[in-house]
């Protein structure tokens, strides 16, 4: 995720903003600091995002055929997004609009990709690291 304005970088920033909004409202976190649980979740989400098989072609998680979060983390993500999603439009409108537009992205399951498509995606990810 070293490319400054890559799709994955934007997705990471969006998740960080959503977690921050949620944590401030539910856990009385102040400023830029997150509570321990929210920081652990954000670290988990960023690790999963960095291992996404789609790379910069990644759809939004709700439209993704691959569920890479464990069930417990998936429920936490759902709660966070349900709370923070509507608030993102007011607090971070550009990220919210970009995320909404990314929701129209359609992809197939990685197993359905041809060998060349998988190699091309993997090569693109390595060149940005």
Query: What is the chains' assembly state?
Result: single chain
- How much strand content do the residues show? under 5%
What is the count of β-strands?
0
Give the radius of gyration. 15 Å
**Main sheet attributes: strand count, strand direction, barrel closure:** none
User: Uncertain runs with pLDDT below 50, 5 residues or more?
Assistant: none
- What structural class should be given to the helix and strand makeup? mainly alpha
Task: Write down the secondary-structure element order.
Answer: HHHHH
Helical residues, percent: 55-70%
Describe the structure.
This protein has 129 residues and is mainly alpha-helical. The chain has one domain. The protein has helices spanning 7-26, 36-50, 71-91, 93-102, 115-128. Helix 1 crosses helix 3 (71-91) and helix 3 (71-91) packs across helix 4 (93-102). The longest helix is centred in the middle third of the chain and has 21 residues, at 71-91. The chain is globular and about 50 Å long. The mean pLDDT is 79.
Summarize the structure.
With 129 residues, this protein is mainly α. It has helices spanning 7-26, 36-50, 71-91, 93-102, 115-128.
What labels describe this entry?
62% helix; globular; 0% strand; mainly alpha; 129 residues
How do the strands and helices of this protein lay out in sequence?
Elements: H1 7-26, H2 36-50, H3 71-91, H4 93-102, H5 115-128
């Amino acid at each position: 995720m070293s490319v400054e304005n890559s799709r994955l970088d934007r997705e990471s920033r969006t998740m960080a903003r959503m977690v921050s909004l949620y944590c401030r409202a539910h856990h009385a976190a102040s400023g830029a600091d997150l509570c321990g649980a929210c920081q652990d979740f954000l670290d988990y989400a960023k690790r999963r995002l960095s291992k996404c098989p789609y790379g910069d072609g990644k759809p939004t998680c709700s439209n993704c055929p691959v569920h890479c979060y464990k069930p417990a983390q998936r429920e936490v993500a759902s709660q966070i997004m349900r709370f923070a999603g509507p608030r993102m439009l007011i607090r971070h409108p550009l990220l919210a609009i970009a995320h909404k537009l990314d929701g129209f992205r359609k992809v197939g399951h990685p197993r359905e990709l041809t060998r060349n498509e998988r190699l091309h995606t993997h090569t693109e990810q390595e060149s940005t690291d």
